[in-house]
Design a protein that fits this description.
Layout: H1 3-29, H2 42-58, H3 64-89, H4 95-120, H5 127-149, H6 151-188
Helix pairs in contact: 1-2, 1-3, 1-4, 1-5, 1-6, 3-4, 4-6, 5-6
Length: 196
């Protein structure tokens, strides 16, 4: 499998591992693309489909989606690694390298998703959460379909998305640290910390 498919599927897995698994499996099952046979088994497709529906519902509920993201901190990167390994196994490429790539791209996407969702959950209205969840599902579907059709372009997008994910996490962590420092300073009656 080309690097583009592994990178794109890995990054998409960090957003929604179940949708990624289902899309790759169904594409192979319906002969739309040459995907790993391990993802085409009926039980894999049924389980991925059921879990996608569960995640689709949970993802729309503020705070519940953050709890779901905490649980999936291990599941999504491992899923991305397994998908990367499966994609490489069918092509004779190094499964270990592909698993590391898939897991790494997945971890970058998951980190951005979880931290962004935690920040958005501070808002009392539910519409931002619902809109972001639907947008994420569209990105996952689009990226997986693009990867199967144009792996080179998908690779470029996955790299850009992974870099953007790292920047988002860095900025959110920095903002939270500054907020906490200012909050502690106010509690002690001191001056707020200067922005760095």
């Amino acid at each position: 499998m080309p690097f583009g498919i592994i990178a794109a599927a890995g990054w998409a897995s960090g957003i929604n591992v179940y949708a990624t698994t289902f899309l790759l499996g169904i594409a192979g099952r319906l002969d739309w693309a040459d995907t790993p046979s391990a993802l085409q088994h009926t039980w894999v497709l049924v389980l991925a489909g059921i879990m996608y529906v569960v995640e689709f519902c949970v993802d729309k509920v503020p705070l519940l989606d953050s709890a779901w993201d905490v649980i999936h901190t291990a599941i999504r990167p491992i899923g991305g690694a397994l998908i990367g390994g499966a994609l490489a196994a069918d092509s004779g490429s190094s499964e270990v390298v592909a698993a590391l790539l898939g897991g790494g791209f997945s971890l970058s996407a998951h980190s951005a998703k979880a931290s962004t969702r935690a920040a958005i959950n501070l808002s009392p209205e539910p519409f931002t959460n619902i809109g972001l969840s639907i947008f994420e599902d569209g990105i996952v579907a689009g990226l997986v379909i693009l990867a199967l059709d144009n792996p080179g372009l998908a690779a470029a997008l996955a790299i850009v998305f992974a870099a953007a994910s790292i920047v988002v996490v860095f900025l959110l962590v920095r903002t939270v640290r500054r907020f906490l420092a200012n909050w502690r300073a106010r509690r002690r009656g001191a001056q707020p910390a200067e922005p760095s």
